[in-house]
Amino acid sequence: xxxxxxxxxxxxxxxxxxxxxxHFYELEARPRLVAGEFLPGVGLAxxxxxxxxxxxxxxxxxxxxVAHERA
Length: 71
Fold this sequence. Notes:
The protein is mainly alpha-helical. Helices cover 46% and strands 11% of the residues. The radius of gyration is 14 Å and the shape is flat.
């Protein structure tokens, strides 16, 4: 799962919990959460936003890790 906001906002964690609760025996790898970094006061600074929000490289890396892992 990927969420733009920091993991303290818990929506991604909620989705992981529901996935495990409802599909535990069907999972072939552990669920992962790619979440934004906690940087208070980022505002509209593009460079800080790019550093704090999950980017394509990080998302693809997480997907590759899941694809190569067996539960």
